[in-house]
Amino acid sequence: MIVHSRPASPGDADTYHRWYDDVHIPELLAVDGFTGARRLAAEDGETFVTVYEVDDVDAAKAALAERRSAGSMTPPQAVQLDPPPTVQWCTEL
Fold first, then answer.
1. Which of 44, 52, 53, 90 has the smallest CB count inside 10 Å?
2. CB-based contact 49:2 (threshold 8 Å)
3. Is residue 35 part of a domain?
4. Total-model pTM
5. SS3 of 33, please?
6. pLDDT tens-digit profile of 7-25?
7. 50 and 5 in contact (C-beta within 8 Å)?
8. d(CA 34, CA 57)
9. What residue numbers bound the domain in which 30 lies?
10. Distance CA 33, CA 35 (A)
11. Which residue blocks in the chain are alpha helix, DSSP H?
12. Residue 92: pLDDT above 90?
């Protein structure tokens, strides 16, 4: 799964990165099917990309949907939501 996101504003960057690194990624890695994650900064200096490794896309999607519907995922902090982050689910060739 590939996610493109950015802080809500330049002043929110520290909060955004703390939430992503200390809260969001650990929560996602606790979801069945997610096996790894790495974050990248785009060259524009404003957009960040997170690449999540999953062992089974369909199972990971279902497990994530279950966690979200149960309300067990922490809401985004300092993440730009308009427009929202883009999410792409990919499979290995």
1. 44
2. yes
3. yes
4. 0.92
5. coil
6. 999 999 999 999 999 999 9
7. yes
8. 9
9. 2-88
10. 6
11. 13-18, 25-29, 57-70
12. no
